[in-house]
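Why should sequence recovery work at all? Because a backbone constrains its sequence more than one might expect. Tight turns favour small or flexible residues, buried strands favour hydrophobic ones, and helices have their own preferences. The token representation captures these environments compactly. In the example below, the structure is given first.
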């Protein structure tokens, strides 16, 4: 009889723990959002599956199972899956030199009284949570409004995108900090990216908030896990260079975290275009995937702003023109309720792959975006991003 590897054993334990948690969650209907004191969680519609509920919400039962699996792996002395590869010496100094002072440490405010174990699991930090917050102990209660540290830059370990977006991973992922102009889903395990990704998002979000102080915050979906790798059901989102963002709508924001399907009467083209243009102007965006049916409304907004024809052709694939294949904004099915932004590799990073080169028109075969990853992914694009 053969004996499974320690990693297989850990994976089996985690699968069993998660399976038990999901069954219990289904039985008791435990799929509620974290809420602030004095408010009630918005009930999920009956069409939301258990998979979607757990994807959106930090279900306490599931987080406890994750926390237990982390402890088991540490007790077994097994290596953590996805450990960073050693960085080239000539890359390290240059990568660290580019770290924004605003992002050398990242804190978040606890939205609801919780335990340290649940907070660690919700952020996907494991034991690193207690290294970042040495004043806290496992199982300790943390009050609403407390500030917890979720990231600290390591002088020897810059963030790094390794490999292709659909086959690579992320080293030393940087989490998106909190801000009044954007909103993350309650589950924070997939909110990590490269320094270029996160700093560009923060700059664009802040510019959006300054321009439209009364506008709804930008909905932020998947980026990547702290150590990257597969993020089911997506094929991409593995290297910290992909992020899903919601469009800005004309209706009053209801505070829900689900994507909103957009059309001419529901899309706020002016505000959505402003956000998109801020990202593009950074020079850090490789490609943005937006449904062609929405591109025409954004195109009108850009043209009304006075963008020259040459710039419009550089940015928009639609309406069709000779330079469409090399445009920044491209059509990809399943992106009528959110956009998918892919950022460029770090300038100093020799291990990043899959960036579209100038003049390269044959990129679609390499994309493998989430909406085509699996039949489940296609069924979930209207709500799971």
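From this structural description, the recovered sequence reads:
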């Amino acid at each position: 009889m053969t004996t499974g590897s320690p990693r297989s054993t850990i994976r089996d334990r985690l699968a069993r723990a998660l399976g038990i948690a999901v069954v219990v969650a289904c039985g008791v209907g435990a799929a509620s959002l974290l809420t602030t004191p004095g408010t009630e969680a918005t009930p999920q519609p009956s069409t939301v599956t258990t998979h979607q509920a757990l994807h959106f919400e930090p279900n306490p039962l599931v987080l406890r199972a994750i926390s237990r699996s982390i402890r088991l792996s540490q007790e077994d002395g097994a290596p953590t899956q996805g450990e960073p590869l050693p960085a080239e010496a000539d890359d390290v100094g240059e990568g660290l030199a580019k770290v924004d002072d605003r992002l050398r440490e990242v804190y978040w405010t606890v939205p609801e009284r919780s335990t340290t174990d649940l907070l660690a699991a919700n952020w996907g930090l494991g034991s690193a949570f207690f290294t970042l917050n040495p004043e806290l102990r496992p199982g300790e209660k943390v009050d609403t409004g407390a500030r917890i540290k979720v990231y600290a830059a390591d002088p020897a370990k810059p963030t790094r995108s390794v490999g292709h977006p659909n086959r690579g991973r992320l080293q030393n992922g940087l989490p998106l900090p909190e801000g009044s102009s954007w909103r993350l889903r309650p589950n924070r395990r997939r909110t990590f990216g490269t320094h270029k990704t996160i700093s560009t998002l923060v700059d664009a979000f802040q510019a959006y908030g300054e321009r439209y102080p009364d506008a709804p915050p930008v909905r932020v979906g998947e980026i990547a896990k702290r150590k990257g790798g597969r993020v089911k059901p997506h094929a991409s989102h593995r290297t910290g260079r992909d992020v899903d963002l919601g469009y800005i709508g004309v209706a009053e924001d209801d505070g829900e975290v689900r994507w909103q399907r957009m059309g001419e009467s529901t899309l706020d083209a002016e505000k959505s275009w402003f956000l998109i243009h801020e990202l593009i102007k950074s020079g850090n965006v490789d490609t943005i995937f937006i449904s062609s049916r929405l591109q025409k409304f954004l195109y009108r907004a850009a043209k009304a702003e006075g963008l020259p024809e040459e710039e419009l052709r550089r940015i928009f694939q639609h309406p069709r023109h000779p330079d469409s294949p090399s445009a920044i904004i491209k059509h990809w099915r399943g992106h009528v309720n959110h956009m998918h932004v892919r950022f460029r590799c770090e300038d100093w990073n020799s291990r990043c792959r899959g960036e579209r080169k100038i003049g390269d028109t044959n990129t679609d075969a390499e994309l493998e975006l989430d909406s085509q990853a699996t039949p489940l992914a296609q069924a979930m694009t209207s709500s799971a991003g």
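A few observations help interpret the result. The longest strand covers residues 147-152.
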